[in-house]
Fold this sequence. Notes:
13 helices, alpha+beta, Beta-lactamase
Amino acid sequence: MRAWAALLAAAGLLAHPPAAGQAPADEAAIIMARARALPLERGVEAVEAYVPAETVRGGSGRPLPARGPERAGFDPAALEKAALWAEARQSHALLVARDGRLVLERYWNGFGRDSRFSTASMMKAVMALAYGPAVAEGRIGLDDPVGRHLPEWREDPRGQIPIRRLLAMESGLAFPPQPPGPPSPASPTLRIMFAPDIRAVALGVPQDAPPGTRFAYSNYDSQLAGEALAAAVAPERFADFLSRRIWKPLDAADASLFLDREGGSPHYFCCLQARAMDWVRVGELIRTRGRVRGRQLVPAAHVEAMTAPASTNPNFGLQLWRGSPHAPVRRYSATIALTVPAAEPFARDDVVFIDGAGGQRVYVIPSERLTIVRIGRAAPDWDDSALPNLVLAALRR
């Protein structure tokens, strides 16, 4: 792996790489160098060439058991329609599991079973799941004021925001306005993604509304929630806590976190590098209400809290999206132009899903014992309910 300092040195931005954990002075140069160089869609090898990473240790990584579509209750020809729909939309991977057994596993564009992908905001749900064991151990509470765990905000009014409000994207924190013109190091989107000290960036966000009064999807909220969790499990590193309490017991393969600098903060809102099959395991953890092979990894009550509707948005829980009630056009906030359609209602009213930019999805349908994972490039005609509805239509009655 070429760390970020080596990249900047090669670009002539640093005469000498700084010591581990030390942020260089030229933040703007770092932000723009990373923004120009980092190919987030190309997979773990490309991403880790430009940023430092921290390993999340897994177990054996052995493949999930498989079962033929017919034995699992599917019409194979109808299930193939779902695969064709995904293939036509620049997908790299599509996996469908029922009762934890794969009934469809398909890869395209040179990707395969052992490929790891940068799946953008899907990391948010993993961070939220990691709260479960930390809460069970009494290290942190969802209703704790965040300032209890972030010393910089201990005497700040923002420190009174309950952690639950951060996880539900209803903190009242402002998303700083985007400066006009081409991308610049002043961009709040680029700063939270590429700055060499994203904890400091997140702590600098102002508050402009009372907690619990509006929904606004924000990487800043997720980063602050992750920083609070990391403080609660210290001195253990978050990557080690995640490995020990979730990733290794899931028997997933090694994964990696995107860091802001060597020894620095993980991106709690983005970019866990993991295999598609291991995202099935994450979906299954939600479907089974936190239980794996007879072991309760995440308290069932915590999974229920994650999947319950937020007070300000019935289609959002705690870092998870909900398919019901039907939202023909899903908005991320009043200030974000991006929307995602779902032309038809989800065919089951208990669909919850993990959302990553560009149609990265983990759909969980407990009533049908299903988990569906799609990873790929952004598709201009992506429709949120189309793929799960095609899979559901393939079930035999």
